[in-house]
Amino acid sequence: MSAPQTLFEVHRAGPLALLQDAGRFGVRRLGVTQGGPADEHAWAWANQLVGNAWGTTGLEITMGGLELVCRSEAVIVVCGADLDACLDGDALPLWQGLRVEAGQRLSFQQPVNGLRAYLAVAGGFQAEPVLGSTATVTREGLGGLHGDGHPLQEGDRLARAASPTGRQPGQRAPADVIIDYREEPRLALIPGAQVAAFEGSSLYQAFNATWQVDDRADRMGVRLRGPELKCRSGGMISEGIGPGAVQVPPDGQPIALLNDRQTIGGYPRLGALTPLACARLAQCLPGQRVRLQPTSLEQASRAYRAFRSRFGT
């Protein structure tokens, strides 16, 4: 079998460029977390606009600093954050498919609006699945281009996983799905777990105060700074935690857990952010202000089903 054709070569790696499919599921019993795109919304639309099926491997670019050299023609799209992306020095249109040619250079500089951009190519990027997924989890050394959890490095070559479906470039995302990440988001949170153990004044503050994203934020979780939340429960036995779980450690400052979180935890939980709230939080820069908004499980399920229905899943 002939070697797959190289689409891009990494000329400059940047701080964190990770291949991500939909995530690694069914392995939490092994202590393995799911990985996958921190912003599922932008990742999904990037794949959609180049004709890829749900779950196709794309590239998550955090903060910028990445430069790729095109080695063959491809149809691509960049969704999510504006990282001052350029093609041969000219501004790259976001949320819109376009064709690139061999020899062109695609670069991502630094955040202008949002934190994470998603690059999808028609046919998806090739990587060998580990535990059923190509999702890169650096902490666990799983997934990614070489299966070892490493971010992209200078000199890496990205190949196409499958033949494109034939969708023509120029496909644009509907206006209603394009987000201005500079706006203050209201993050939907489903109260649960130990919420009844928090003092009434703390619950009022949790949903009425403005929170600030701490600079201690990564793919594992995001710390929020604001009023001190007080919980009456004492020590807890560690229990399983899902994506979006909002834990409150003894300092009273909540931590929203994201894709690369640990699989168990022993801090009381205010509840869980919805998948779309997690996606929105993943685009917040340190210092950005956010609000928590209580929602019901039924409302959250309805919103997520409506989101997934746009991708035929």
UniProtKB/TrEMBL annotation:
Residues 29-311 form the Carboxyltransferase domain. One of its GO terms (molecular function) is ATP binding. Gene3D superfamilies: Cyclophilin-like. SMART domains: AHS2. Keywords: ATP-binding, Hydrolase, Nucleotide-binding. InterPro entries: CT_A_B (IPR003778), Cyclophilin-like_dom_sf (IPR029000), PxpC (IPR052708). This is Carboxyltransferase domain-containing protein. It comes from Halomonas halmophila. The lineage of its organism: Bacteria, Pseudomonadati, Pseudomonadota, Gammaproteobacteria, Oceanospirillales.
